[in-house]
Design goal:
The chain has 123 residues and is an alpha+beta fold. 28% of the residues lie in helices and 20% in strands. It is built from four helices and five strands, in the order αβββααβαβ. α2 (59-65) packs across α3. Residues 1-8 have low confidence and may be disordered. Bound molecules: guanosine-5'-monophosphate and zinc ion. The site of guanosine-5'-monophosphate (5GP) has 13 residues, from β2.
């Protein structure tokens, strides 16, 4: 099992700061372990990010340490999709991971995108 003991909050992690309320964000949902907020540079009419309060660099770390958390994050994402009226027309959940995955913020986050048609394959 991967050692995830190094997954501490880091002073320079912007998503840790958003989760702690130390940086502003348009929060749309929060509970004891997750926070959801609007993406600052939306790529679709609905573009939300769902993060765990605990710092994991990516989904690989989180799935190794607490797979049930990842499942609960998917429940939050699908609930938000419903609240945003996306269930009928569909939506996309994205989890960019690592350099080739296009991840730019090294704190696990799922994107919820909706409100327009999505292309496939992604770039
Ligand atoms: P990634 O490229 O890592 O998959 O996605 C990171 C996302 O975080 C991007 O869509 C980017 O627009 C968003 N983002 C980066 N910095 C901030 C910020 O300070 N506040 C918010 N709300 N979103 C951010
Ligand atoms: Zn963090």
């Amino acid at each position: 099992m991967a050692d995830t003991s190094g997954s501490q909050k880091t002073e320079d992690c912007i998503f840790c700061k958003i989760a702690a309320g130390e940086l502003p964000a348009e929060i749309v949902y929060k509970d004891d372990e997750t926070v959801a907020f609007a993406d600052i540079n939306p790529a679709a009419p609905v573009h939300l990010l769902v993060i765990p309060r605990k710092h994991y660099t990516n989904v690989v770390e989180a799935a190794a340490d607490d797979p049930a958390l990842v499942g609960r994050m998917l429940t939050v994402l699908t609930r938000l999709a419903g609240e945003k009226g996306l269930l009928e027309d569909g939506f996309r959940i994205v989890c960019n991971t690592g350099t080739r995955g296009g991840q730019s913020v090294p704190h696990l986050h799922f994107h919820l995108l909706g409100g327009r048609s999505m292309a496939w394959p992604p770039g």
